[in-house]
């Protein structure tokens, strides 16, 4: 997952691509939870959910960290720490929790 940053934009809110990614992940988890088989154990259900979360959340976090480092190199006064904190907070609060 990548996005192009506007170097003149000093905004530190999570970028739209992260917000969209969170919405897609919520939709995937709704479909996943509705498709579970009755015979699956809670461990099997949790394992499947973990695989989805790992494949979706880890890249979102990596993208935020990479983007903040790249922009900070070019814009020293840009508050990359607040940007990363805002992105991580968004991921923690807004991305779905597994309710299996």
Describe this entry's structure for a reader.
The structure is a single chain. The protein is mostly helical and about 100 residues long. It has one domain. It is built from 3 helices and no strands. Helix 1 runs antiparallel to helix 2. The two termini are about 25 Å apart.
Task: Tell me briefly what this model is.
The protein is 67% helix and 0% strand.
Number of strands: 0
The shape is: elongated
End-to-end Cα distance: 27 Å
Quaternary arrangement of the chains shown?
single chain
Number of helices: 3
Count of structural domains:
1
Largest sheet properties: none
Task: Give the proportion of residues in helices.
Answer: 55-70%
List low-confidence stretches. Answer: none
List keywords for this structure.
100 residues, mainly alpha
SSE topology sketch:
Elements: H1 16-34, H2 42-74, H3 80-94
